[in-house]
Structure formats: structure tokens, C-alpha cells
User: What shape does this take?
Amino acid sequence: MTGPTRNAKPHPQPVRREHWSGRLAFVLAATGSAVGLGNIWKFPYITGVNGGGWFVLIYLICVATVALPIMVAEIMLGRATQRSPVLAFRKLAGPRSPWQGIGWLGVAAAFVILSYYSVVAGWTLHYSWLALSQGFAGMQPAEVEALFGQVYADPGINLFWHGLFMLLTIAIVAAGVNAGVERWSRILMPLLFLMILALVLRAAGTDGFGPALDFVFGAHSDRLTPAGVLEALGHSFFTLSLGMGAMLTYGSYLRARDDVVTTSLAVGGLDTLISLMACMMIFPIIFVAGLTPAAGPGLVFVSLPIAFGQLPGGALWAAVFFVLLAVAALTSAISLLEVAVSHAIDWRGVSRRRAAIGIGAVIFVLGIPSALSGGTPLFGSDFAAATEALFGEGHGKNWFDLADYLASNWMLPLGGLGIAVFVAWRMGEHAREQAFRAGSRFARLYWGWVWLLRYIVPVGVVAVFLHALGII
Ligand code: PFF
Assistant: This one.
């Protein structure tokens, strides 16, 4: 991959573009991108840490007022230009325009996010295998906790599963938009939905279901802080795969007549539904086992196996849960790799196969420090001490934390802000309106959407930045 050097020019002959076979294919693939570790691992634990209730309500407001308008803008830019992120901005803003930087930022974010996402996805594969081969039944809570510590610190385990997960992702992306991404979304997304439904029904049969409903939907505000509100906003970007051109790239495989607004509402609605279902399958089991919902990142890898261990038939359910998590991670990883691969194809005319293998290999290597973060001192404690010196006390981050912090707190919100500002302030009125209204059953929402992009999105994103800088 090369950067934007002075002589770099996009490949003169645009490669013929593949298209989704229909609107359903797009909705399944885009929902596959959106639904991932963010929904099933992160959303329940940040909901737990922030005390449920009001946090969930604020999150829903952020999705409706900030994230969804950006999603419509991204998919629309992709559909209108039929290009990957950098070339989409080049086509609309001109070959020397700095707006292309938003596209480059997105491609960079794909490398950064996939490099550590694949490591966590690797843990889900390892846990699936553990659940299937030996189960967590009979393990004492302290043993389960120690197990996670061991997995986190073991370089061999981390590298093996990270590598295997990247191989799966590469194989699917290399097969193409129709034969790879679409085909596997059609198989994996219904499977994912069935597994999550089965787990929610299982949880609904326990005594913890009532308390869990109250925790998630009751009017609790006792643990909510301003930082929690901004966390909800930041998470809405990550969970909907916004701000880095993933939705733009998937949108570029739509045809002009496909409705952007309806599909965005479908993707946003399904993603939210699955996040809430994730809470409704995890919290009842946690409550029945008498554990805390505020366990943080270990909720899924420590508390849940302990809780499953105490449930009749728990070994099987634990296996279903971790396979579900792995499937969700895979369909998201596919979209991350697709951003960079689609860029390489459009920019240089590289073949899809070569791009997928080459870029996938680079991301595997970039992920090695994250895979070693828990084990080897250089990328664990030494590195953490160095970043503490850089960022100040309490900000010690290992490589893994740093990649997540940079991507979630800076790259995605910055990209989302750039896309909103471009569409709302820079794009010509006529072009914007046409692009929005084409094929849309919701054409009357146009002015409301522009207004949200112009005013609400920038204020929200700037608040996230000011908070990250410690100013508010
Ligand atoms: N939306 C995914 C999740 O919630 O796990 C993560 C993600 C995928 C972020 C693709 C960004 C992206 F482009």
C-alpha cells in the first residue's frame, strides 16, 4: 500500500464494479458489518458500568440524532460515486482537494481497527473451542478468572487464533463482493440471529430476567456521568461502523435505484435490536449467578463463563454464545478488510485476490504487538510505562489499548465529522438533494437530515473531542 505521493494517480481504467444482488443482500452485509464485538462484548459491559437505564436511553438518542444521519450520508456518498472512500471524495471535490484526506483516514482506520479487533476475535475462537471441548462446567470462579489472565498473556494462543481469524477474513474478501461478502452474510447473519434468539429465550426462563429488564429499561440514573454520555455517543460510531468509509464502501456496491434511507433505518434498527438482545441474554444469567453487571471488559470472558458454569446445560449454551460472538466478529472484520481492499483495487487496479492477501498479511503483522500486549514486556508493561510518560499519569496504555483508543476516540469521530461537514456544508445543494432523494421513500425527511448533519452532529463530535482532551 502506498500513501498519497505526489505522482500517485488512480488507476486510469476503473475496474468494473460488482453490485449486491438486491437490497436484502446489502442490508444483511451492512448489518453484518455493524453487528460485532461492539454489540455483544462492549455494549453490555459499558451499559453495566454506566448503571443501565438512562445510559441506554441516551445511547438510543445518540443513534437517532447523530449516528443515523451520518450513516445515510456515508451510504449515499458511496452509491452516488460508485467508488471507495478516497476516490469518492476525489470525484466529488476534485483531484487536489484536501477532502480526500477523510478517505485516507478511513483506510488507515481499517488497518488500525482490524489489527486489534482480530486479536479479540481470536479470543472468541479460543473460547468457542474451549467451550466445545471441555466446557466451563465445574470450574471455580477463581479458575475462570485465572484462565482469562492466562489467555491474555499467552503469546502462542494469541498469535495462533489471530492468524487463523485473519485467514478466514482474507478468504471471504478475496472471493469477491457477491461470491464472498454477500454469500457469507446470507449464511452467517440468519445463523447469528437464531443463536441470539435462542440465548435470549434461555435467559428469559431464569429468575434473572425481571431484574435484567428493570436494569436495562428502568429509570436508573445513579451511575451515569457526563463521561458516560460521551461514551454512548462515541460507541454509536463504532457499533454502526461509521466514520471510516465502511458504509461508504458497501454503499458503492448499491445501484442508483436502491433506497438509502430505508436501508439505513433497517441497518440502524437491527444493530440496536441486537445490542439490546445482547443485554437481555447476558444480564439475566449474570444476576442469577449473583455477579455484578459492572465487571467491565471481563464481563463476557470472565463473568459469563462463571455464570454459564452454574446453569443446567451451561456448557452447550456457553459454546453457542462464543460461536455467536466469533460469527459477529467475522462479518465485521470482512467489512474492515473490504475498505482497504476496495481502495487498492480502485486506486491501483490491483487484483482483488492479491489485494486481500497482501493487505491481510500486513494487518496480521500490525496486530502482532496487540497479540503480544498481555504477555511480552515490550508491548505490555514497558510500552504502557512509556505511554504514561507521554500522556500523563493514569494513561498507561499497552499497544492494544492505544490502537483501540486512537481509533474509537479520534479516527472514527474525526472521519464522521468530516463526512457530515462535507455533505452538509461543502456539497452543492442540488447534488446533495438529488443524491438523497434518488429512489427514496422518505424524501420528506431531507431537511431534517440536513439540519442534523449541519448542527447536531458537529456539536456532538466536538464535545467528544473536548472530553478526550480533558477540557470538558
Ligand atoms: N461495528 C463493529 C462492531 O460493533 O463490532 C466494529 C466495526 C466494524 C467498526 C467495521 C468499524 C468498521 F468499519
In short: The chain has one domain: 23-468. Residues 1-6 have pLDDT under 50 and may be disordered.
